[in-house]
Specification:
431 residues; alpha/beta; Lyase, Ornithine Decarboxylase, Chain A, domain 1; 2 domains; 9-stranded mixed sheet; 8-stranded parallel β-barrel; 13 helices; 29% helix; binds pyridoxal-5'-phosphate
Length: 431
């Protein structure tokens, strides 16, 4: 499943002890497993083999150049949401012809950039955007490949902040309006109606919502495909991963837990969806982010203080919400384990960062082994929506990132030098 495990009592990423990495590079430190990134990609690719398909890794989940290169080498396409992400893919050696460009707020400049460089398709989120793309394309004398994003109004049964496929959400166009829009779009001269796209949400742990959405949208795809000559149907991303196996198993070795075995596997996903998709006779795009990246990375951190107040045991670490915001933003669970395996009594602990916000907390009342100042911990499953959401809040530099490949490791993003935190700021001449 992934490549973080204890070897002789020390947490390793593939063949490298994470303790040796933190000693070399300091903390907080993101550590990524190349084998896990590539392995998850291959698993999905294998499961989808019966379909003509293209996996477009959702760059927003983890956009480090080394990660993008790893996936580009596997043959991945990319799902991007800004000019910056398109440029990153290019910088990493990815193929823009295998990129889709999504997002509700594409600017004229971004559209022009994507048209000039030549992408696979714009995933269009509104009719005004469609008109804008047509206008920019006419000005540049190009034909823009487009797919409308349909909102199927399906509840994905996931956290409110990461559901995207109901009419409460800002994404896409209502199912009922799609046919009309394609009719009007077919009269716009600088568009190529290449397909249809949907994405119902993130961290889905069951196949049912995917199935319901595909069942609802497939007949529409079929109709429009025959009418407009589609090439593809993108079913979006959203495959969930196991963050919280301890709840099920009570063990910190979560890769062996029953929850890990119960998870929504690519095989289950493919087995359910392939029979619904195959009859369309189209190329199927899928846009996974978390499934590929989530369990491919951890965040290593140092214990600075242990503080007992009232009934609480606070473990104060040097990573904070500016490094990993998911617990503060989505109440999400990250398994916390020491880099040196500990047995013995567990103490209900709150692992918190140094930032001056009560929300700067990674877990509350979690039974953890006793730790002391100078020990190191790992926050697991931090490979997706981790480093990419980092900020310099409290003037804390962006964390360093390391990629491991077998027994090799290399820094793939240096720790931000502290002076760079206020780079670009100026004191006006009148002060
Ligand atoms: C975020 C996003 C994805 C990736 O979601 P995951 O849950 O990480 O797989 C895919 N497609 C679109 C349109 C997205 O917004």
């Amino acid at each position: 499943m992934h490549s973080f495990r204890y070897v002789r009592g020390k947490l390793h990423c593939e063949g490298v002890s994470i303790e040796s990495l933190v000693e070399q590079h300091g903390t907080p430190l993101y550590v990524y497993s190349q084998e896990t990134f590539a392995g998850h990609y291959r698993k999905l690719d294998e499961a989808l083999k019966p379909l003509d398909h293209l996996i477009c890794f959702a760059v927003k989940a983890n956009s480090n150049l080394a990660v993008l290169r790893t996936l580009a080498n596997e043959g991945s396409g990319f799902d991007t949401v800004s000019e910056g992400e398109l440029r990153r893919v290019a910088a990493a050696g990815g193929d823009l012809k295998r990129c889709v460009f999504a997002g509700v707020g594409k600017t004229e400049d971004e559209i022009a950039f994507a048209l000039k460089r030549g992408i696979y398709a714009f995933n269009v989120e509104s009719e005004p955007e469609l008109l804008r793309i047509n206008r920019v394309a006419a000005k540049l004398k190009r034909i823009a490949p487009v797919a409308m994003r349909v909102n199927p109004n399906i509840d994905a049964h996931t956290h409110a902040k990461i559901t995207t496929g109901t009419y409460e959400n800002k994404f896409g166009v209502a199912f009922e309006e799609i046919e009309g829009i394609y009719g009007r779009a077919s009269r716009l001269k600088n568009l190529h109606l290449r397909g249809l796209q949907m994405h119902i949400g993130s961290q889905l742990t069951e196949v049912k919502p995917f199935e319901a959405a595909v069942r609802k949208v497939a007949p529409l795809v079929d109709l429009l495909s025959k009418r407009h000559g589609f090439e593809f149907f993108s079913i979006g991303g959203g495959l969930g991963i196991v963050y919280d196996p301890a709840l099920a198993s009570g063990t910190a070795e979560w890769w062996n837990s029953p929850a890990a075995r119960k998870l929504l596997t690519p095989e289950k996903y493919a087995r359910t969806l392939i029979p619904l998709l195959q009859p369309l006779g189209l190329k199927i795009l899928i846009e996974p982010g978390r499934f590929i990246a989530g369990n491919s990375g951890i965040l290593a951190t140092r214990v600075e203080y242990v503080k007992q107040t009232g009934r609480k045991n606070f473990v104060i670490v040097d990573a904070a919400m500016n490094d990993l915001i998911r617990p503060a933003m989505y109440d999400s669970y990250h398994e916390v384990v020491p880099l040196r395996k500990r047995t013995g009594k567990r103490i209900a602990s709150d692992v918190v960062g140094p930032i001056c916000e009560s929300g700067d907390s990674f877990c509350k009342n979690r039974p953890l082994p006793k730790v002391a100042e100078g020990d190191y911990l790992a926050l697991l499953s931090a490979g997706a929506y981790g480093s990419v959401m980092g900020s310099t809040y409290n003037s804390r530099p962006l964390a360093a990132e390391v990629l491991v490949n077998g027994s090799q490791s290399q820094l793939v993003r240096q720790r931000q030098p502290i002076q760079k935190v206020w780079d670009g700021e100026k004191i006006p001449s009148w002060l």
